[in-house]
Amino acid sequence: MSMEIEISRKNFLKWGSFLTAALALPKALKAKVLTPKEKPLPKLDSEAYKPALCKLCPALCMLQVRVVNGKAVGISGMSGHPVSLGTHCPKGGAILQDLYHPDRLRFPLLQKGPRGSGQWERIPWSKAHQILHDKLSDLLRRNAPEALAVLAAPIRDIRHDIQERFARLFGTPNFWEWNWPLAEAPLDAFKMMHGSSEGLFYDLQNANLLVSFGWDWLQSFPSPVEAQRAFSELRRARPERRVRIIQVEPRLSTTAAKSDEWISIRPDTEGLLALGVAHVLVRDNLYDRNFVSQWTSGFEEFKTLVLKEYSPQKVAEATSVKTQKISELAHEMARIQPALAITYRGSLFNQTAVHSLNALLGSIGVRRGVLATEAERYQLTLPAAYSSEPPKPPLAPSLHQVPEAILASTKSPIEVFWMERVNPVFSTPQSISWEKALEKIPFIASFSPYLDESSRLADLVLPPHHSLESWQYGFSRTLLGQGVISFAPPVLRPLYDTEDHGDFILNLAHSLGGPVSKALPWSTFVEALEKSAKRAQAEGQMREGGWWEYEAAKADIKSTLKTKSRKLRFSTKNIEPKPFAHEYPNFPLRLYVHTPLAFSFGEGAHLPYLHSLAGAHLGEQWETWVEIHPAAARRLGISDRQMVWVESPAGKILARARHYEGMRQDTVSLPLGLGHTSMGRYAQGIGTSPARIVEKRQDPSGQLLWQDTWVRVYGA
Amino acid sequence: MEPENRRNLLKRLAAFAGGLLVFVPRAFASDGSEGEIVQARGKHRWGMVIDLDRCTGCQSCVVACSVENNQMLGSPEEAAMGRVIRWLKILPRTEGEGSHVRQSLIPMPCQQCEDPPCTRVCPTSATFMNTEGIVGQVYDRCIGCRYCVNACPYTCKFFNWGEPQWPAEANQSFNPDVSVRYKGVVEKCLFCHQRLQRARDKAREEGREIQERDYVPACKAACPAQAIAFGDLNNPESEVSRLADSHRAYRFLEELGTKPKVIYLREG
Question: A618 to chain B: which residues are within 8 Å by CB?
Answer without folding.
Answer: 92
